[in-house]
Specification:
The chain is of the alpha+beta class and about 325 residues long. It has nine helices and 15 strands. Strand 3 and strand 4 form a beta hairpin. Helix 1 packs antiparallel against helix 2 and helix 2 crosses helix 3. It starts with a helix and ends in a 7-residue tail after the last helix.
Amino acid sequence: MTTPQAAKQIVRNFYADLDAAPAESLAAVMAEHCSADLSWRGFHPFNEIMGGNEVAAKFWAPLRQSLTRLQRRMDIFFAAENRFDDPGGTWVCSMGHLMGLFDKPWLGIRPTGKMAFLRYCAFHRVEDDRIVETAMYFDIPHLMMQAGLAPFPEQTAAQLVQPGPMTHDGLLFETQPESEGKKTLAAIEAMITDLGQWDSGLTLEDELAQTWHDDMIWWGPSGIGATYTIERYAKQHSGPFREGFSERSKTKHICRMAEGHYGGFFGWPNFTAVPSGGFMGMPATGKTGEFRVIDIYRRDGEKLAENWIFIDLLHFWNQQGVDVLARTTGISGHEN
């Protein structure tokens, strides 16, 4: 098995080559650093893509042609072994923004000629010195809002270009104490246990206080927004979310891991639920919908302090019969 430190270097080399390559060389970069049968998962409308050539052609080349002079601005970077045996392995997580000049249309979103930020988070599984699996989630509605579009009704939390950790220590290029990663994973798993109940017998705020600091920050996806302190998080997201859904399934993750004070997970999907009304200003549909989610956490002491969340809201609402991307841009046929 590739060690976490070796995997980090493999992904850093991949990023360096990918970010420096001209659009016509992206497929060659993918071939050099990724396995021939790379499994790549991305948010709607990209979904699942097989093979590095296809990822370069369908995702990276169009994005690079639209967001020119692209920069990768990483805020968090860590690696660890997956706590699950299937698929197991060593994974590297990277989170931040891809920033460029929005010069050409992308997914029907009209360019602004101005700086634009695409929030992203990626999990890469590394095996035999190659990236064999990637989950790369990105906040397309946030880019739409930067272009003056309104994909969703006004929400309860704040819509922002989101900063990295308050502590500015999220780039874990060096090895971290194993004991710290274990503490972080334990804090995350305690929170997951609480979250999965929805009926702990405690008030929502008291439940949250078991695993979160009172001055927690929840950096949610555009369309939901970011919120600060347990009291406001309960009021502006967690409470409305629980009220807006029923029949939530059990949580299932493909990868869950932690290193140092940072950790996170992703699923495909993480869980399903039925909208019973009121969520994001949309009516109840009675249809089960999938939630594809990445969560990244910073632990401070014994509790969680910050949380960055990526939710494929375009996919969720597409399952409910609402093509938010087409409705907002006026262009249909985005499926790959």
